[in-house]
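Morning!

This is the sequence you dropped in the shared folder:
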Amino acid sequence: MRISLLLIYLLTAVFGFSQKKDMVALTTYKNSDYEISYPKKWDLDTVLHYPDVKINDRYSHPGLSFDIISIFSQSIPSSYDNFDNFVKDCEVQVKEVAYESVVNEKLVVQNNRSKYFKIIYTSELGNTCKKHEQRFYLTKNKIFVMTAMSDLEFFDSVINNLEKVMDSFILKVK
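The structure's back. Tokens below.
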């Protein structure tokens, strides 16, 4: 019995953990303001006003709405004289659209590439509940808003993949 258990353990350790995980092929979208990498099988829509883009995975939930990441930019209002005022205003705007004003998480993130405000909230769009992760980046001239959105019921299962795409975002302007 001990030998059987030891043999099962060794086979699992050798074969179960030595298999390579499937690597997803990526492609990168670049413009003069930023770049972002995403799985090749996802769709990229640049028909929006430059430099805005929409990246979506139409294949995760066939027949249902799909996971999406959108990036848009706008000019900076004069009220954003510092990052703290920017964060406060972003939070107020999100609470206005959040379902029953439910903000699930909020924090300021500083990594080696940039600083951004991250907020996760729930909203009702039409007759479906959506969950969003938004990241707000502030530069000298523009605000960049990146939003990952999925149906509420799928959000927890897809957010890791969406965040991998969001984490690849490189802001070229300061």
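Headline: Residues 1-22 have pLDDT under 50 and may be disordered.

More detail when I'm at my desk.
O.
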